[in-house]
Structure formats: C-alpha cells, structure tokens
Write a structure and sequence with these properties.
Largest sheet of chain A: 2 strands, antiparallel
Helix content of chain A: 55-70%
CATH topology of the largest domain in chain C: Rossmann fold
Shape of chain C: globular
Helix content of chain C: 40-55%
Chains: A mainly alpha, B mainly alpha, C alpha/beta
CATH class of the largest domain in chain C: Alpha Beta
Number of domains of chain A: 2
Strand order of the largest sheet of chain A: 1-2
Distance between the termini of chain A: 14 Å
Oligomer: heterotrimer
Order of helices and strands of chain C: HEHEHEHEEHEHEHEHEEHEEHEEH
CATH topology of the largest domain in chain A: ABC transporter involved in vitamin B12 uptake, BtuC
Number of helices of chain A: 13
CATH architecture of the largest domain in chain A: Orthogonal Bundle
Amino acid sequence: MFQLEARPQSSAFWSALTPVLAVIATMIAGGILFAILGKDPVESVRLIFVDPLLTPYNRSQLLVKAAPLILIAIGLSIGFKAGIWNIGAEGQFIMGAVAGGAVGLAVYPVDSAWVLPAMAVAGAFGGFLWAMIPALLRIKFNANEILVSLMLVYVATNFLGGMVTGPLRNPDGRGFPESRSFQDLPGTSNSEIFAGTGIHAGVLVMFAAVIVAYIMFNRHRLGFQIKLTGQSPRAARFAGVNPSVMIAVCLGISGALAGLAGLFEVTGPAGKLTTNFPVGYGFTAIIVAFLGRLNPIGILLAGIVMAITYIGGETAQFRLGVPAAAISVFQGMLLFFLLAVDLLSNYRIRWVGKERA
Amino acid sequence: MDFSSLNPIALIVSLMVAATPLVLAAIGELVVEKSGVLNLGVEGMMICGAVFGFMVSVESGNPWLGLGAAFVGGAAIALIFGILTQYLLSNQVATGLALTLFGLGFSALLGHSYTGIKPPSFPKLDIQFLADIPYVGGVLFQHDYMVYVSLLLVFAVWYFLKFTRGGLVLRAVGESHDAAHALGYKVVRIRMLAIMFGGACAGLGGAYISLIRVPQWTEGMTAGAGWIALALVVFASWKPWRVVFGAYLFGGFTIMQLNLQAVGITIPVAYLSMTPYVITIIVLVIISADRKRASANAPASLGRVFHASH
Amino acid sequence: MKLMKTLMAGAALAVGLAGAAFAEPLKIGFVYVGPVGDLGWTYQHDLGRQAVEAEFGDAVETSYVESVPEGADAERVMTQMALAGTKLIFTTSFGYMDPTINVAKKFPDVKFEHATGYKRADNVSTYSARFYEGRTVIGHIAGNMSKTGVIGYIASFPIPEVVRGINAAYLAAKAVNPDVKLKVIWVFTWFDPGKEADAANALIEQGADVIMQHTDSPAAMTIAEEKGIYAFGQASDMMQFGPNARLSSIIDDWDPYYISRVKAVLDGTWVSTDTWDGIGPGMTGIGAFSDKIPADVQASAQAIVDGLAAGTMHSFTGPINKQDGSVWLADGETADDGTLAGMSFYVEGIESELPN
C-alpha cells in the first residue's frame, strides 16, 4: 500500500525536475494523440517542440509571443504565492490597453518620444485600477476575489466593445469597429527594436520584471512577507504583515503588470484596439505561473515553453494540417501532467507493508 | 418604437430556454462546492458534454441517448479533475483551469467532423389542453422536456441537501473535512461522487445547448456559459432555488437585450451586456459583507486541499 | 541582420524558383479567420481553394491555416508561409488588412489577395463581392412571401458592407410591399450560433416570418425550420438546415476569381487590382428558388437577377432618401461605388437607428 507523507519542505530537486517530466510526458501523450489523428507523431511533435527553436525568426517570435504571458504571470505569481487569487488578469490586460490606448489617441496627432512612455504609464495605471476593484471589495466586504475579478473580465470585454464602436473608433476607418492604428505614428508605435526580429519594448520590460521579481522574492522584505502570508496567514499577522495591505499590493502589482502587457501588445503586435484583440493571455498566464512554480526564472522558462507550443502549433497546422484545437489539448495536457507530478515535490511516497489496525 | 410587439409570455418562454443550461451546470457545481471543492473547469465539462451528446445523438439518431452520453461523458471528464485534486492533491484552481483549456481543445478536436450536421430533433411536451390555458399555459406547458428535468433536478438537490442524511454528510465534509474524517466519513469518496455529479450536470447543460437550444455543433459554442454558472452558484449563496432565480435573471437580460433591439430601441449593446455581470458582483458583495449569512452559506473548506494524515 | 540574410537567400531562391517555374508547383497559402467547418464564410473560401486544386492539379500546392486571430498571429502565419516559399497568399478577412500590408512590404516577391479590404500595394490586391445585389433579390422574394409584413434581419457589425445589405433588402421588399417592416438585431459577432439562434427567436416572437442574416452560421436557418417560417441561406446554400424554410440563398462563389488569379500568377500577368464583382461575373451566386415560391414571383425575381447581372438594373436606383429625410438619389440616379463603400446611413423607412 502506498502512502503519501507530507514533506516538511518542498523538495528543490523534484521542483526543478517535475516540469521536465511533465513536458516529456506531454510529448509522448501528444504523439499518441497525433497518431490517432492520422498524422506522423514524431514529425508533429518535432514541428511543435523543436522547430520553433531552429530559425532565428522563430526564436525571436518566441520572445514576442512569450513576453505578455511572462509579464502577466510574474504579477500573478506575486499574488498566488500569498494565496491571493487574481483570475481576472485578462480584464486588467484589456483595461490597460484601453486606458493607454485612449491616452495615445487623445493626443493624436502629436508625435513625440514621450507619447509611448506616457501610454505605458496609463496602461499600467488602468490595469492597477481594475485590479483594485476586487482588492477593495475583498478588503472591505470579504468578497471572493476569484469571482469578482472573473466577472470583471466580462465587463472589461464588453467595455472594450463599447469603446471601439464609439468614443475610440477611428474616424477615418469607414465605420469599422476599431481604433486608429498605433503604428501610424512613431510616437505611439511600439515598434521592433532589433530589425527583423519583432522584439519590442515590452520584451525588454518583461526581462526587467523577471529580474526585479527575482530580487524581490529572494532579498527584499516584501518578498519574504508574501511567501509568509501564503504559507501561514496567522504567522504573517504576528510578523506584522497587514493582510489588507498585502491584498492591495499583490492585486495592484499584478493588475499593473497585466495592464502594461496589454498596452505593449496593443501598440505593438496587435497594432490597434479591436473587439477581438484580447486572445486569452490573462488566462494562459495563470497556467504559465503554475508551470513556472510561481518562481520568476521558472516563469520565464514556462512562458517560453508555452510560446513554443503556440508557434509550433501554427507551423504544424500549416505544414501538416493538424487542427488548431490540438494545441489547446496539448497545453491542457501539459498542465495536467505537471499538476500530477507536482505531488512528488510536496509529498513523499512511502511503502507501508500492511494496513495498520 | 412599437412596444406592442413585445410579448411577455414569449419572452419568459425563451428566457427559460436560455437559462436551462445555466441551471443544469450551476446546480451540479453547487453540489461540488457544497462538498468543499472548487471546480473551475465547468466550461470544459460543459463543452465536452455538448460534443459527446451531439456525436452520440447524430450517430444513433436518438437524442435521449445523446443526453445520456453527455451525462456519462461529463462525469468521465470530471474524473480527471477528481483524481488530480483528491488523490494527487493538486491545486484546485490550476486543475480547474487546465480542465477548461483541455476540454475546449478536446471537444473541438472530436467535433471537427461534426460541424454542420443537423442533429435529430428533440420532442416537446405537448399536452394540448394544458397549453391552451391563457397566459400560464404557454409558459408552463410547452417546453421541451429538459426544462422540466432541470427544475426536477433542482428540487432533487434541494431535497437531498436539506432532508437526507447523505446531504447532511456532504455538507459536513464541505464545512470541515478534518472533522468529518475524524468521524469516520470517507471524505475523498464523497467528494469524488460530488465532482462526478457536477461533471454530469455540466455535461447535460452543454448538450442542451448543442442538441436543443441552437441546435448545432460548433467549437467553443458554450461561449462562457460555464463561467456564468460558477458565478451563479455564488450569486445564489449556494442555495438551490436561488440558482434558478439567478439563471433566469441572466437569461432574461440576454433575451431582453435582443428583443429591445428588435423593437427599435437603440441601446448601447455593450453596456447592456455588461449588466448581468455587474449585478452578480453587487450581489456577491452584499452577501459577503453580511458575515453572519455568508459564513452560514459558503462551505468553510471550499478550495482547501484535504490530506488525511493519520 | 540575420533576417536580412534569410530574406536575401529567400529572394534568390524565389528568383531561382521563378526560373524553374515549370518544375516547381506554385505554393498557394490561405489564411482563414474561422473554421472551415463553419458552413458559411470560411467554408466557401475553402471551396475556392479546392476548386483551384482541381483546376490546376500538380501545377499548384495549396495549404491553409484556419481560425487565425486577426493581428500579430496573422502576421506571423503569413510570414511563416512566405518564408516557406509560398508565392500567393489569400487573406480572407477584413481584419487581416494591416498584417497583409506589413508582410507584403517584407516579401515583395510574394503576391497577396486581401478579401474585403481597401489598402493595396504593388503586390497586394483586394477583392470583394457585391453581396448587396444578392440582398436585392432576396428582399424582393421576402417582400412577396411575408404574410405578416415583418422581415427579421440578424446583423453582425454596423460596417458599410452590412448596412448596404440591410438597405438593399429593405428597398427591394418595400417595392413589393410599401408597408413592410424590417426589424434589425445587432449581434456584434460574425459567428456565434447561440446568439444567432437567440436573435432569430426574438425576431420571430416579434412577428417576423422571414429571416435574413449577415452572420456566418446556419443557426438562424435551423430555428426558422423549427418554427415553420422562411429564411435565406447566407454565404452557403444551407439547404440541409432548412429544407422547408429555405427560400433561396446568397452564395459566395470565389471559385472563378481564385482560378483566374492563380492563372495570372502562373502566366506571369498578375498585377495588383481591386475587384468588386457581383451577380454578373458570378461572385455573388443566388441559390435555386424553392418550390414554395409561386411561379410569378420566381419569374420576377429571376428578372431582377438577370437585370443586375447585365447591368441594366442597379440595387440602389433613385428616388431614395436617407433615413433623416434628406435626398440621397434623384429619380433614376444610381449610387456610385464610392458612396456605397462608405455607406453608414439607413434609407428612409427603416424605423430603428443605426448603432453609432
């Protein structure tokens, strides 16, 4: 009879190994899936996992695709580590893009180097405010932040729709429900920094966020307080952590980072505000956060792995005719396997001879 | 603007049809949450139920078999969640989200060759003399059978939780799994059963959309209904009859918005579509703020991992 | 710099390939905004792709990517197609406009065909169909067939293309029945069977007995069949969804256009053009008339089809006023393409207001 015994402390060895095991398991399961679909399993898995790393164009696209995921996930991990569940990052992403985009459109056609930074600040602030709603409602009324932040995603999506068909709609755009293109003016355009790669300012900010988060968790008092709150809220209170402040700080930071990601995405790769520019990064980032074990370096790697599955998936579609849905199945399986093997880092498996009396 | 073309009876009838998948999914999730488990994968279970029900329905020619397949299929999908969270002790939030992602992709994959096929039609209740009762007849007696099944299910869950011993045990597990375990109840087994029931109901809700309401199969057709169902459970303060009220309110808003447009009222559609969600937040705040009531309703162990460490 | 080298190599390869055009099949790529199984917009484009394969056999090699979101992902998919040696890319959604232009700049030797857009370049053509001509035909039929005098219209987004369709249908129906009412519901989506079904039900409850749609799924046709009223197929024929309900349909037939464009590339005669074809050239097909339509109505509808095809009839012929009462077209005057392309007003007689 196997028995699970809680480890006093997470095993570092297993924590590092489990994501690798999960990826290998997914490759095997994915290969079986493709074989059932009638596609060559080895070729498919190779196209999805290996190909994106091969060409320089693909490699830089990985960073472009991963940047918003990692940026949002860093913010989310801060909250998740403290036991504060921000599920509404998608809504904060949207509101950041709308707020920042509105600032850029309001000063149109002013073209200055200060416009994009101002938009970025506005975007971070927009996301921050949107995340403050669940924070305040939790602090004052004890309302569950999972559900409030989730509902606010739908409110934000509808708000975006209202904005692009109304106040923010491009007056020269023949009535289509979208804003002006931010790429029209250098001032509002989050264009690529290194020619031909597509790498934009958001990618650099993402790297900065990873570094800052790493330093914060390992050296700064706030990082210590966050980890403490997550493991034992009562001990944290005794250590002088104010739970309300913690909720506000965690939700605030994650909202700001999500809003920033939204702004970079809409002024860069997406190019303009439309009803369907949000593609679910806020939710995928949650998966990236878990895949990365809520650790900044882990999140960086996890984000890149996710980006590999996205880009590899597109290639597989167009080269092999693999259906788009196969990619979501892949990503879901990856997370399932990770959650399953995660057990090993928190619990030890012991063999107990016979049932105890 | 021609208000005379707004028929309140017809509105209520279509509102009930729009709300039924929500009722089904939410009542299942209510049972799961009452046992102390938060399953965010409702959307994934619903869409899988939609595709299983559709596929079996088309292949067998019998819509009832389709519904049965959705019931069983939904429970099977929920089993993945159950094993991961109850036996492998994984984080419930992450597992639920993974289930949604997986479910959406898996259903799209399975249903790929079924897009555009017309399913066998579903019989409606047709007691003619009852349906002819003015006003009430149309509302009460002309629905397809699943509307009545959903209401019966709510009644059954309400009765189970309130009056039976099984319901009491389930609630105890949800309130304090350690205490229940100490009393000798099999916490994991009870939760697994609840999770499978939740999956089965969500599957039925999804199949309702693909077999009766639309009826068609398209990937992603549940369009967020699973998330609304999650919100409904909280909106209803975990009380079964309030789930029905909440679902009808939500369904009502969606239908009203469409009808108002047809009448000729230009409403900013985006803002009207937001309203059900804003209302849910307000209700959530109200019930959470009143700490006495909230603590009497939200299962205290909701979301916490149970590990029997003897 | 690495990309420059790749591009130079790619260009050299392209020149080499062009020289060896007889040996290498022409690689053609299709970027779809929805699933090919939608039985609507994307399905019809895919039929066009299959027609190209059937016509040219081994001389071409086609591939497609479906459900590509507009924006950054579209740009990447197009770039990857171009990098893989695709020489002709069809981008089948308005929202792909900027990505198409951006990628076209980077790959001047690749030709792009963008559907329903308005930006062109030396290697970017645009094309669209005069769907509104089809609306005139079905509006005429609807005006004759509706007993309640209420026609229901499920509209997606308030863009000129959709508004044109509403106006054209209304004018044609009104010509037959001056008291006809057109009720419009905006669902703000191109494809959402649940919402389309709900909208169809709402319109039926409000008295409509003929349904028209400018959305992509067969949901409305299915509901119409269930409720025993009439509807028209949109983009595809939709006969199997409404054997009794379907009166006719507007069919997007991209086959002739796609075949001619591919031929142009193979012959080396391809230039950037803007094509806006209607019933005449066959881009807008009208589905067979159902037996439910009386013979005299079938005849008059056919006359309209023939007139539009020959150019002797125009969907928008004055006297027509705008909804606010101002004069738009004088007696006998027909609307020019420019006004039609930017149409954002209802014609007189439609009761509701255009959103924004």
